[in-house]
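dihydropteroate synthase, Mycolicibacterium sarraceniae. Tokens?
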Amino acid sequence: MGIVNVTPDSFWAESRFETLEQAVRAGQQMFEAGAWAVDIGGESTRPGAVPVSVDEELDRILPVVAELARFGVVAVDTRHAEVAQAAVDAGARIVNDVSGKLYEVAGRLGVGYVSMPAHTVPVVAGVYPRYGDVSADITRVVTDTADLAIECGASRVWVDPGIGFGKSPADNLRLLRDLPVLCQGPFPVLLGVSRKSFLHTVTGRSVGDRLAGSLAVIAPAWSAGVDIIRVHDVPETLDTIAMLNAIWG
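Tokens:
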């Protein structure tokens, strides 16, 4: 799943597309490279990001959704019900829910749904919730919400542990180590680690130099049984998966 951010403030400058033409071309290139889907977001969720109004988010994403839906599966990355509804009306087929509250919307619309632990914008850098057992707690939350989405009528549901969303570096690494347990659950798993800040904790690399770290996570994720990898770098990710399949198929 490729990432197209129609924002001026996403955490990696090269993933920001501020015009319709730039965003559509980026999404087309991802589809052409072999992406199964493209995820479109109009509000940054990085630490310190400034929330935007629903109207502003709609203005940013709807033309992009409508254009890219002609080429393949489009997901909308949002925390607002109004945005999810309008994006589906424009052609999106998956609600990638960063609020943990949009399962009823996805169910009513009969589209796909990604269940992720709820968080708010702005995320405060360096402030993390405390978990009794981060893997067990997150698994319970995303599975319960996924169950609700199915009950409401969502066509297909994935669970996402929400790497990097208000979690400490240690919690992120623990969640990655425990991916095999999550993948043994009742729902397919979506994972987003692309260029995130926890990679800096391990490698010391700035966001522009985190491709290698991002790709390194793919091997254990693939081995664990993760179904969808959400990334900025589609060709490099697909090459990595192709090699893993060729060696261990």
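The domain at 2-248 is CATH 3.20.20.20 (TIM Barrel).
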